[in-house]
Every structure is written in C-alpha cells, then in structure tokens.
C-alpha cells in the first residue's frame, strides 16, 4: 500500500471509488471532497489516492495544519475512504499508519478526525486503531484524537 498524488492521469479512477451503500452517510465522495478542497484552500487540504500496487483503492484528505479555524495548527483527517471492493483487507489500517507517520514526521503530536454517529458508524475502526473521543463535537460530528508520541 502506498499513497500517490491525485493527477490528471488518475483523477477519474480515484473519483470512481465508492464505499458500501450503508457507509455513504458517513463519508463524502471523492468528487465532492476534491470540490470542497478547491473551495477551502484556507484549510490547507492535503489529499492522496491510496494504492495497492498499481490500483487506486482509496482516498485520504487532511487539513494540514490550517492557519485558522477550529483545527488551527493541527492535522485533521477530513476524508478517509477505502473502496467497497477492497475493504477488510488491512488497507485502511495501513493507510492510517502511513498518515500517522507523515503527521509525526511533520512535528505533529496528534491526528484528529470526526465522525457522524449512527448505525454502521466508523467509530469501532478508529477506536481499534487507538483514537479516543475528545468530548468535543464539530459540525454535529464527534471529534476523535490519536496521540502521536515522539519516537
């Protein structure tokens, strides 16, 4: 598993990635994510396609230490999806491990994310990875924190 930039050459394949029907309420599509990133440059969006070999299998997007707003100066996992055909293979865990390493290498001591509660929510996945609830909410979503102690 590795991360690649989204380019004109792979944009259509990455935009075609889909989660399962029961997961759609919890994560926006890649197309919408890219539009939001373009509309909100102040959040310093950083996004990559998740690849397994030469096949795009997922998408990640972070707010990379935005200079203002509720996550000012912090790394926030804004979008995270693995295509329905590639779930339950450890790809999501590997991608999150790589993201955490990148954030740590950038001097980050934590990685934040959020989720909308509901039946089939991603909380069990994040909890198993080591995220903890912060007690905060953002835009109706529960904010989670993964501590990244220095190595």
From TrEMBL:
PROSITE patterns: GNAT. Residues 1-149 form the N-acetyltransferase domain. Keywords: Transferase. Gene3D superfamilies: 3.40.630.30, The crystal structure of the spermine/spermidine acetyltransferase from enterococcus faecali (1.10.287.900). One of its GO terms (molecular function) is acyltransferase activity, transferring groups other than amino-acyl groups. This is GNAT family N-acetyltransferase.
